[in-house]
Amino acid sequence: MKNEHKKNLDRRDFLKVLGGAAAVTSAALLPGCKNKQESAYTATTDIPTDQMTYRINPSTQDRVSLLGYGCMRWPTVSNNSARDSSDDIDQETVNKLVDVAIAHGVNYFDTSPAYCKGRSERATGIALSRYPRDKYFIATKLSNFAPSTWS
């Protein structure tokens, strides 16, 4: 039986809809990309802290947040990404970012020895060490980057 409310989109219509959605999403995210000198983006409504989705590990019963926090681009004191800069990581800001993530239900953090020129694991560890160890999960992966690629 045909659903009369269902509209069949051809490829052109689909791409128009997809493009429009991408433009709206991009425009909504751009205010959050300002540097420290510009005004910070403020949400018009409160961000819920009780709506995180979790997956249950069947063998351990651990509840792991579906959203993981990638720690590849921690900010530096000069407002650059530590991935591309040798400037010191802004630990105070990293701590605040982790605090917000945990407050909103994120409990899975992803780092690597290669992130932030070898400094991500330490900065992530400092931020997370302020919480009980059983409150978060951390993944650190091996890489093919030689430590000689950073000082």
How do you describe this structure in short?
The chain has 151 residues and is of the alpha/beta class.
Describe the structure.
The protein has 151 residues and is α/β, with parallel strands linked by helices. The chain contains 3 helices and 5 strands, in the order H-E-E-E-H-E-H-E. The relative contact order is 0.12. The model is unreliable at 1-6 and 23-39 (pLDDT under 50).
Structural class: alpha/beta
Largest sheet, in brief, is:
3 strands, parallel
Count of DSSP H/I helices: 3
Return Rg in Å: 20 Å
Estimate the helix proportion, in percent: 25-40%
Instruction: List segments where confidence is low: pLDDT < 50 over at least 5 consecutive residues.
Output: 1-6, 23-39
> What is the rounded distance between the termini?
67 Å
Order of helices and strands: HEEEHEHE
* DSSP strand content: 5-15%
Strand arrangement within the widest β-sheet reads: 3-4-5
Average predicted local confidence, pLDDT? 78
Name some characteristics of this structure.
single chain; 151 residues; alpha/beta; three-stranded parallel β-sheet; two-stranded antiparallel sheet; 3 helices; 11% strand; disordered N terminus
